[in-house]
C-alpha cells in the first residue's frame, strides 16, 4: 500500500504545484509577506517621490541634488524587485498597483513641487518611514525564523538610515 503524503506537502485541489514547505508556517509566511508588502509600497512611493524631485529640483544646489536624487531613486528602483520576489517566494502575491500602494504606504505624497530644501526634508522623512516599516517587518521575520527576509530587511535598513543621514546633513 502506498504511503499517504502529509497534508503539508499535498497541493491544493486543482493545482500541480506542491505546497510550500520551507520550515515557516503558513500563518508566519502570511504575516511576513504582509510586512514586506508594506515595505514594497513604501519603497515604491519613496522611489516615485525621489524621481519626481530629481526631475523638478531647482536652485543653487541643483547639480548636487539632481545627482544625489538620481543615485537614490536608482537604488530604490533596483530594490523593488527583490522585495516583491521575496513576497512571491513566501507564497503570496506582491501588490503592484498605485491603489494598493496607496493603501499600504505610510508615506504621504506632496501635493505640489516643493522648494529644494523642502524636497530634502521630505526625503529624510520618507527614508525614515521606510526604515520604520522595515524594522517592523524585521520583527515578524525574526519571530518566524525567516533568515532570508531578515537579511533583506537588514540591508534595506542600512540603505534608508544612510540615505536619511546624508540628506539630513544637507539641512544642517
TrEMBL record:
Family annotation (InterPro entries): DPS_DNA-bd (IPR002177), DPS_DNA-bd_CS (IPR023188), Ferritin-like (IPR012347), Ferritin-like_SF (IPR009078), Ferritin_DPS_dom (IPR008331)
Listed Pfam families: Ferritin (PF00210)
Location of the Ferritin/DPS domain: 34-172
Source domain of life: Bacteria
Record family assignment: Belongs to the Dps family.
Name recorded for this polypeptide: Ferritin-like domain-containing protein
Protein species of origin: Pigmentiphaga soli
Amino acid at each position: 500500500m502506498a504511503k499517504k503524503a502529509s497534508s503539508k506537502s499535498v497541493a491544493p485541489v486543482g493545482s500541480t504545484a506542491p505546497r510550500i514547505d520551507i520550515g515557516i508556517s503558513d500563518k508566519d509566511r502570511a504575516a511576513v509577506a504582509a510586512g514586506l508588502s508594506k515595505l514594497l509600497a513604501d519603497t515604491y512611493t519613496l522611489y516615485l517621490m525621489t524621481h519626481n524631485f530629481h526631475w523638478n529640483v531647482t536652485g543653487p544646489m541643483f547639480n548636487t541634488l539632481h545627482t544625489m536624487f538620481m543615485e537614490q531613486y536608482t537604488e530604490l528602483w533596483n530594490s523593488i524587485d527583490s522585495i516583491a520576489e521575496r513576497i512571491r517566494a513566501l507564497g503570496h502575491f506582491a501588490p503592484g498597483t498605485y491603489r494598493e500602494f496607496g493603501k499600504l504606504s505610510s508615506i504621504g505624497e506632496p501635493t505640489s513641487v516643493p522648494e529644494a530644501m523642502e524636497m530634502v526634508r521630505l526625503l529624510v522623512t520618507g527614508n525614515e518611514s521606510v526604515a520604520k516599516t522595515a524594522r517592523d517587518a524585521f520583527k515578524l521575520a525574526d519571530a518566524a525564523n525567516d533568515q532570508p527576509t531578515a537579511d533583506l530587511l537588514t540591508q534595506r535598513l542600512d540603505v534608508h538610515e544612510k540615505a536619511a543621514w546624508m540628506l539630513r546633513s544637507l539641512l544642517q
